[in-house]
Amino acid sequence: MSEPASNPMREALQSAISENPVILFMKGTPDAPACGFSARTVAVLETLEQPFAAVNVLPDPAIRQELSALSGWPTIPQLFVRGELVGGCDIVLEMYDNGELQQLLGMDADAAKGQAVGAGTATDGGEPAPLVIENLL
Amino acid sequence: MTVSPDELKRRIESEIPGTRAAVSGDGHHFEAVVEGPAFAGLSRIAQHKLVYDVFGTELGDRIHALSLKITPTEDR
Q1: In this predicted model, what pLDDT tens digit does every residue of B27-66 receive, in sequence order?
Q2: How many domains does chain A have?
Q3: Fewer CB within 10 Å of terminal CB in chain A, N or C?
Q4: What is the nearest CA distance from B45 to chain A, expressed in angstroms?
């Protein structure tokens, strides 16, 4: 993959994905999802009481564009666990139904819970961040 | 221009050999139940990508949403 050396949006997305063990890119926010697919995916994570970071892709079309270029996945939502794309709404629901998601999230073993993962770091500071990460970890 | 479920069905079936698809939808949001040997042995992500790739950039644009239920079948 040859990308231009400087792509701030791509870099911001990449660090958000690597810094947050569970991160959901969605339309709207967990409190106010703007799309049924995003809403259903949030509902699954909330049912599991799984802490997650959320990024609203709607404020800037470039977020979605770069995210899809990065992940190779055309649609929103997109759930990443430990840096890996898990999938969109269909896959998340299917994996929730058969227990694979719970397993992936380590709910049986040492959970990703309670990790001190930079809560607030993404939105701290004076300059406007390219991505607003609603950190629910 | 709206998209018909029939068009999606035809395209999935013709571009992924051996696949059978049942598609319903309202012209923007679609649901497809797809089965075929092409999906065997692939991860879920790869299965979905195989179908998404049939439509490329039309997804999220002309085709607002495509919900997929994919079942791999044995090749025979």
Answers
A1: 889 999 999 999 999 999 999 999 999 999 898 888 988 9
A2: 1
A3: N
A4: 6
Residues of B in Cβ contact (< 8 Å) with A75: 52, 59-60, 65-66
Domain that includes residue B36, residue range:
5-72
Residue B30: which residues within 8 A CB-CB, separation 6 or more? B3, B5, B8, B23, B24, B63, B65, B66, B67
Q: Tokens for B65, please give them.
A: 């949403």
Q: Is B69 on the interface with A (CB under 8 A)?
A: yes
Q: How far apart are CA B1 and CA A77, in angstroms?
A: 25
Verify whether the Cβ–Cβ distance A74 to B60 is below 8 Å: yes
Instruction: Give the CATH number, domain containing residue B49.
Output: 3.30.300.90
**A72: nearest CA in chain B?**
B49
Pair A56, A134: CB distance under 8 Å: yes
**Residue B74: which residues within 8 A CB-CB, separation 6 or more?**
B37, B40
Q: What is the CATH number of the domain that holds A78?
A: 3.40.30.10
Tokens of B72: 């791999």
Interface with B, mutate which of A91, A92, A94 (most B CBs under 10 A): A91
